[in-house]
Amino acid sequence: MLSLAYRSKSFWQKLGAFCESANVSQAVIDSVAKVLADVRSKGDRAISDTLKRLDGVDLDSSQFRIGEDEMKEAIRRLPKENLAAIKESIASITDYHRHALPKSWTAKNGHGATIGERFYPIERVGLYIPKDLVSTVVMTAAIAKLAGVSEIVAFTPCAKDGSVNPGTLAAMKLAGVTEGYRIAGVPAIGAMAYGTETINPVLKAYGPGSAYTVEAKRQVYGTIGVDLLPGPSELMVIADTSADPRFVASDLLAQAEHGTGREKIFLISLSKEHTKTIKAEMRRQVKSLSRKKAINTVLKEGFLCVQVDNYVDAAEVANYVAPEHLELEVESAQFAQLTRRIRTAGAIMQGGWTATALGDFVAGPSHELPTGRSSRYFSGLQVSDFLRRSSLIRYSKNALRKAGPTVEAFARMEKLDGHGRSVSMRLEN
């Protein structure tokens, strides 16, 4: 664990170094490039070989596909409470994103021409679902279905016997997945991008993953589209003396338990004594958690405490880090002002009752959020990410006559006489 005092010597340098420690190494970049090249040149055989070598999974190409019967059977066998949870999550995510569904429109511009926008779904998308993350199916597929995507293709790891988490299978069917594959990691991204003898490529890839999977998405960008590059989970909690130490501790531990060891958790505290209490509570609670070994790795290497004097300084630190999840465990009177000051968080949770896990599973926004300070320029997954947009322009002769002088002026400035001529010749008769 690293502790820093705000405005202490080399504070920003040390904060930057801590944030950058999650960056992938050249060894990861090279390893990913090799697997992707194999998938591109050897197709199904490369996928089978890589799965066997890295995961001990022995599958031939005829076993890649997840049958619809498997999904239906999982629904039949899933405990009722688990099935209800998946359905509630689908309903919440769909209702939330329906508010943001863009609509095509037309209007008249200053020349009297018709202008507008047209939105239509991307036809075939690929979703990467990390092992056992049932909620990620909902957080991607349900939004794709709302957008009207016709081919929703999911890739997820399987056990050595080829079986897939039954919750994942059930969620695939319920959330609208039309095609599924039991393929993990980099080979899955390669199949999405390049296709194989048995798998058609997609147009855009979505979903979180390990450092290797996210690096694979980065490397195939341009061959296909990608949504964002969501890596290991991050949580920042800004806590004042009103925060319940039990709540703060439980949320920090929750985001540390994912198991990669590269998660980042931040505590920005306005009270030294409160910080000590929260840390003690974390030590107490971690003892009863099943993933305490993974959590302790993060607490040792990926936990940063920053002591600040006021809310303004807390917001400044948050804007620099640009955390994936940000909890405001502060007095309710501070919610609005702090939220206005903070411009870079992927998702903001206001108040002690708003555990980050609500956003992970059921609140409504997608839990696929930018990490590694990329919240400075990326937003979390939204319905518009599954849509294509085309602008519309339609001029009449009268409208063209009004716009002509401006076009010709720009053509002269840019020495593009052909551009100017293409308009002026239409007005000669």
How does this model look, in words?
It is a single chain. The chain is α/β, with parallel strands linked by helices and 429 residues long. The protein folds into 3 domains: 153 residues, 3-Layer(aba) Sandwich (Rossmann fold); 201 residues, Nitrogenase molybdenum iron protein domain (Rossmann fold), CATH 3.40.50.1980; 33 residues, no CATH class. The protein has 17 helices and 15 strands. The chain has a 6-stranded parallel β-sheet, with helices on both faces. Helix 2 crosses helix 8, helix 8 runs parallel beside helix 9 and helix 10 packs across helix 11. It is globular and about 85 Å long.
Quick gist of this model?
This protein has helices at 11-20, 26-42, 44-55, 68-77, 80-98, 134-147, 166-175, 185-194, 211-220, 245-256, 272-286, 292-301, 311-321, 335-341, 356-361, 397-413, 417-424, and strands at residues 2-5, 65-66, 105-108, 114-121, 124-128, 151-155, 179-181, 204-206, 225-226, 234-239, 264-269, 303-307, 325-329, 347-350, 387-394. It has 429 residues and is an alpha/beta fold. Strand 10 (234-239), helix 10 (245-256) and strand 11 form a beta-alpha-beta unit.
